[in-house]
Amino acid sequence: MLTEAAIYSPNFETLWPLIRRLKHTPMINFNSGIVLAPFDGSEVAMHEKWFADPQIRRYMDPKTPYIIDAVTHGKMTVPVDKFIQYIIENPLFAWFRIIHLNYGFIGHACMNGIDYEEMSFERALTIGEKQYWNMGIARTVGNMLLENAKSIGFKKVYSSAHVDNIASVKNLTHQFGPGKLIENKLYFELQL
Ligand SMILES: CC(C)(COP(=O)(O)OP(=O)(O)OC[C@H]1O[C@@H](n2cnc3c(N)ncnc32)[C@H](O)[C@@H]1OP(=O)(O)O)[C@@H](O)C(=O)NCCC(=O)NCCS
Fold first, then answer.
1. What's the pLDDT at 1?
2. What percent of the chain stands above pLDDT 70?
3. What is the fold, at CATH topology level, of the domain defined by 4-152?
4. Cα(127) to centroid(ligand 1), Å
5. C-alpha 130 – ligand 1 centre gap (Å)
6. Which atom of ligand 1 sits closest to the CA of residue 137?
7. Exposed, middle or buried, 143 (CB in 10 Å: 0-12/13-18/19+)?
């Protein structure tokens, strides 16, 4: 996987048009009324609410929201505004607001750990507004993200879910095929 140092090196500039397109282009699904809009810094208050909710963060990394410390390379929990700024500035992430025509900003769709050599990423979804769970929104959003990634040239997608996270496991099994069980987590891989 490419390091951040490599990303910012001068001979890496050929990738910038791809990175710019990936991180700044919204996706629209007219049938469902869902738009995936690139993060722009307006997401802080909603994420403070969602990350404070034990039900939402139940299966998330307990250190969420975290960044990778430049010195120790360990996960470091940071305030939400700092975390969102890090996500926006870092080319190894592309996060999108899930905006529903009728319900507004209800969650996020994420491409994490983007690898521009393998053209792969890790997918993660959260519907932070729980009243909209189990309405098929994650299914639509997941497909939108995969289709867009494929159209840009991504080849591989990874994801994982705790075995008890039923909605996430169902969503991933539908879209990625069966996962591989290691301890209490299922690991998924999809060739685009
Ligand atoms: C995981 C999550 C994104 C799913 O979002 P969603 O919009 O509710 O998912 P969907 O409505 O598309 O449902 C996905 C599948 O799970 C099923 N499902 C949803 N909730 C369920 C429940 N409580 N029990 C059983 N099945 C359930 C749906 O019926 C659907 O199955 P189907 O496709 O076979 O019909 C959402 O629950 C969430 O944000 N959870 C908190 C954050 C999280 O855990 N994210 C993932 C790991 S980081």
1. 47
2. 94
3. Aminopeptidase (3.40.630)
4. 9
5. 10
6. 7
7. middle
